[in-house]
Fold this sequence. Notes:
By secondary structure, the chain is of the alpha/beta class. Helices cover 36% and strands 21% of the residues. The chain has helices at residues 38-55, 74-82, 106-124, 139-148, 167-182, 215-228, 250-259, and strands spanning 2-6, 11-18, 30-35, 62-66, 127-137, 157-161, 188-195, 234-241. Strands 1-2-4-3-5-6-7-8 form an eight-stranded mixed β-sheet, with helices on both faces. A hairpin with a 4-residue loop joins β1 and β2 (11-18). α1 (38-55) crosses α7 and α2 runs parallel beside α4 (139-148).
Amino acid sequence: MRSVRAQALNRDYQLYVALPDSYRKTSKSYPVLYVVDADYSFPIVRNIASRLSKHAGMEEMIVVGLSYAKGESGAYSRRRDYTPTAPRNHSYNSDMPGKKPAFGEAAAYAKFISNEVFSNINRHYRVDVNRKIFIGHSYGSLLGLQILFTEPRTFNHYILGSPSLWYDAGVMFDRERAFAKSHHDLPASVFFGIGGLERLPPGEKRSRLTEDADMVEDLQEFDKVLNSNRFPGLKTRVRVFQDEDHASVFPLVLTHGLRSFLKSSK
């Protein structure tokens, strides 16, 4: 575990680092998985990555988990750091005594990753700087999309599970339209995954004005809109995992997202 100061944000974070078994036996560089929401996701990513390399022939990788800000709850930290805007209409309450809910600092947090986090990891570990993978889920996938529409080459592959595309009345659809108007290409590889149960109950009307959205329909529409631009450098894949919900789908998204990008010797 490493501590890192986000100078521009005036906050401290921790980096959880897992090295592959062969790391101390070789001199080669390894691809790196950067996963947000590390407090719960890092153990999952570390163990699945290790199992895939040992039992499925996938190449080994370094896993870096990005923690929530020190001294803050997960809910408070991720709402602020992973969201692209302050929602126009919300009734969120803060779980941090004396602090109002905070939102919309994804752009600043993304700069923290590309500046302080990358330089810290590159200094201390043998990483392949041309093979960086972003892994996010829910709000974490909003952060991934923020990076995708601002500095897409920050990562070589994006694994985005159950993105909260309903957020702020579908603001990411607005971001996509704005990007398409001013760009002729989007050089990125993106794997989208979602649970088949992340739908509205029968009879309920689809809307992006609340969290009770049809996330499957939102994602399928978003991917369709993305690909309608015919960006020559964009490669996307959407996988809907039937019988999985928002809480259970992440391990499957991760496994299939890694297989869509990393090499296997088998």
